[in-house]
Amino acid sequence: MRLIIYTGKGGVGKTSTSAATAYRLSELGYKTLLMSTDSAHSLGDSLDMDLGTTITKVKPNLDALEIDIIHEMKTKWKDIQNYVAAFMLSQGMGEISAEEMAILPGMEMISALFYVNQFEDEGKYDVIVMDTAPTGETLRLLSFPDVTNWYLDKGFGMVKRLMHIARATVGRVMDMPLPSDEVLESVGDIKDNMDRVKVLLEDPKRTTVRLVLNPEKMVIRETMRAYTYLCLYNKNVETLVVNRVLPEEAGEGGFFKEKLEEQKENMELIHHSFDPMEIKYCEMMRTELRGLDKLKLMADMIYGDEDPYKIYSDRSPMSFVTEGGVDKIVMKMPFVDSDKVELFRLDQSTIMVHVGSQKRNIQLPDALVHAQVVGADFKDDELVIKFKRD
Ligand SMILES: Nc1ncnc2c1ncn2[C@@H]1O[C@H](COP(=O)(O)OP(=O)(O)OP(=O)(O)O)[C@@H](O)[C@H]1O
Ligand SMILES: [Mg+2]
Question: What is the reported pLDDT for 176?
Fold first, then answer.
């Protein structure tokens, strides 16, 4: 089963792009599920139809699912929810309702990841297209399988040990209700599910992330940051979708002339930041993008006659490795001459690599902001930049 995840800054067109992609895939004969993990659901608006709380058939080969977190909390997370509620009460807080509990960030994504496991087992779909919440949230969540497992291992491991002692003695630890066996079992289930989904998420031949952006400076910067973090989390980011591109003729009347010039500059910035990644474009449409006909137009614009199932590259152009205490950024840089490489630190968190006529801006992850660059090498069309942390 193939998983295509669309993410990007708020309002750039993630939902529309996801829906358009899913539509195209279904037309090509793939059994497709369009799934949203954004609690502010808008798949229904985009498809121009009512989606219930369960899987809805949109058309032949196309189903849609907006994760209803309240429903999830009341069913799958019941034991954990009851425990958290009891815990909150013991700490002097009011009774927590399922609705309030559902505000806990990340639950949609965890639920979505569980569904992904389930659908893979059932073999019902060839491809899942995932529409997500704006970048910040989604990045945190895509790191979930790692982060959650760390917490579950350390945190719950400790609670479990404490419990054995507590049960044998007083039955309560520090005025805190003890999680029941059911809760621990639920936590165990989460951990197993996370372990499984991690394998799928980090398989570059099955899961790919596509970044949606607009040709605007602030959006580009956020997208660069997202790209860096996704590489750091070992996700295969293989395509960029530049949405809302003003067509040339918009400038003819003069009104959009300056905008078009700005756009040209920003398109260059996009290339300097993401080449040689696959880049797709979609023009700004004149009318509201709603309903299957419009989504078809959008899919035609983005993919032409290509099949969106395709994996444009099974390795992201950038990756992070740590070897012998040295952190390395490895970047694909085809067609360059090694003696023409120059590195500039634009500011603490940005490095510019200048190679002949190619420029590449890299947004460093926080851990490398204070690290020193200790060298750069070329090998097999790859540039390796080495860092030493203080
Ligand atoms: N190329 C386009 N031309 C015209 N309108 C567009 C285009 N792309 C998206 N829109 C419109 O912009 C609005 C936001 O798009 P969309 O909901 O797809 O963005 P999003 O990234 O999912 O937003 P959010 O972060 O709020 O989830 C919608 O009304 C959509 O119809
Ligand atoms: Mg959206």
Answer: 62
